[in-house]
Amino acid sequence: MNTKLQRKLNRNIGLDYIGAFIQNMNMQGCIWVLYLSYCGMNLGQIGILEGVYHITSMMFEIPSGAIADLLGRKKSMVISRILVAVSCIIMLISRNFWLFALSFFIQALGNNFNSGSEEALVYDSMKAIGEEKHYIGVSGRINVLIEVSQGIATVLGGILAEYSFAYCYGASLIIAICALIPVLFMTEPPIEKQKKKDKNVIGMLGDHFKLSFGILKDNSRILETILYFESIFTAQTLLFFYSQQYFYDMGYNKIWISVFMLLFSITSCVGALLSEKIYIRYGNTTASIAAFAIAIAICSFVFQNVVISVTALSLAGFCNSVLYPIQSNVLNQLIPSEQRATLISVNSMFFSIGMIILFPIAGFLADYFGLANVFLLIGGMMVLFIFHFGKKMRD
After folding, report:
1. Pairwise CA distance, residues 365 & 381, whole Å
2. C-alpha distances in Å from residue 169, one per residue of 28, 33, 126
3. What span, in angstroms and rounded, lies between the C-alpha atoms of 247 and 172?
4. Contact call for residues 338 and 210 (beta carbons, < 8 A)
5. Residues near 4 by Cβ (< 8 Å), separated by ≥ 6?
6. When you count CB atoms within 10 A of the terminal residue's CB, does the N or C end of the chain come out lower?
């Protein structure tokens, strides 16, 4: 490989740092549940809309990953940024359920095109220059930037939303457009691909899926890793989103809620920074310890005490950020480059399935039994899951 290409591939990492920071300055992230409630949606409808997002993710996650593998990760990321910007426009002008559903659909599609592509582009860039052994550190730093960005966005989003939700979504649109710029300067990493000149795109996709799922079938470790971690991430994500309504029901306004979410982002940032050191010290037991801490944190919301709840939310954020780079590194070591984006998309698809099942159910149950009791139920189920499944992650 020539020196010029090496420099360009190394530059991909820095560009992704910038892109991840801009992209995740998502000011709607801490208030979208409140916004939908303001627009007349009940928790059940909000759960269905989140279900629309994840059904879309489930349907298009793997095809978008395969397209990224076959046509290029950079192109896939460009499409992603454009679709997210379109979804912000629709969200900004929507006032009824079906337009909200359309916005969630487009946003999910946009995130599909990015989810496997970005991670695959960074990992294969590092692999091409012989630096893949440092991937956990790079992934951790990316997560730090994400958490810092989300923390800033949480505060600014809460402040803007206190004056007008339109300000918040207008800012989100501008940020979505700006997030496209670093991607345009990235370089596609070189990956050897089998020549299929005699086949059209549909035939190439079919062969790619067959090979990718053959790898899943032959390597049960990949599937077990995906199932375990994505179940934990699903529960933690549900806590993060519904905690907005939980704190609002306790009488806190949007600015206070944004402060609570900022504390979540700060501890998540610390978790991302320490993830590599924690994993080096505790090894595979980290997967069980951190997951169990998240489960207990979710259960503690039943006390309906703001100090306990904010502390628990922060702990859950810390542990989730510790787990994410570990899962990413384990999967990338198991997955071949030619199928990397596709199989990472399978990983994201499992998350979508979990959200499709849990989010609407939790919303409808919360309408009848209250969010505190729903959190206790989810945390309790997590504890049982970890005791049953955690041993495989430690082996």
Report:
1. 15
2. 6, 13, 35
3. 23
4. no
5. none
6. C
CA atoms within 13 A on the CB side of 160: 22
Q: Please give the C-alpha separations between residue 137 and each of 230, 274, 279, 287, in angstroms, as whole numbers.
A: 21, 9, 11, 17
**So what's the pLDDT on residue 390?**
63
C-alpha to C-alpha distances, 150 to 31, 68, 185, 232, 236, nearest whole angstrom: 12, 26, 24, 20, 16
How many whole angstroms separate alpha carbon 334 and alpha carbon 221? Answer: 8
| pLDDT score, position 265 | 82
Nearest Cα residue to 300 out of 382, 196, 181, 368: 382
Helical axes 371-394 vs 220-249, angle rounded to 10°: 160
Query: Mean pLDDT, 10 residues at a time, over the chain (395 residues)?
Result: 82 92 82 84 84 81 72 87 92 88 92 82 87 80 83 81 83 90 90 50 61 70 85 91 89 85 86 85 86 96 95 94 83 72 70 81 89 94 84 60
Tell me how far CA of residue 160 lies from CA of 92, 165, 166, 209, in angstroms. 14, 7, 8, 44
Structure tokens at 346: 């399978």
In one letter, which amino acid is 139? S
Ramachandran sector of residue 116 (left: φ over 0; alpha: ψ -120 to 50; beta: rest): alpha
Residue 197: how many other CB atoms lie within 10 Å: 4
Residue 338: the pLDDT is 66
Residue with tokens 């954020």: 317
Smallest CA-to-CA distance from 229 within 294, 174, 287, 308 is with 287
Q: What is the pTM for the complete model shown?
A: 0.66
- In sequence order, what are the residues at sequence separation of 6 or more whose Cβ sits closer than 8 angstroms to the Cβ of residue 357? none
- Architecture of the domain spanning 3-187+202-394: Up-down Bundle (1.20)
Distance CA 145, CA 4 (A): 27
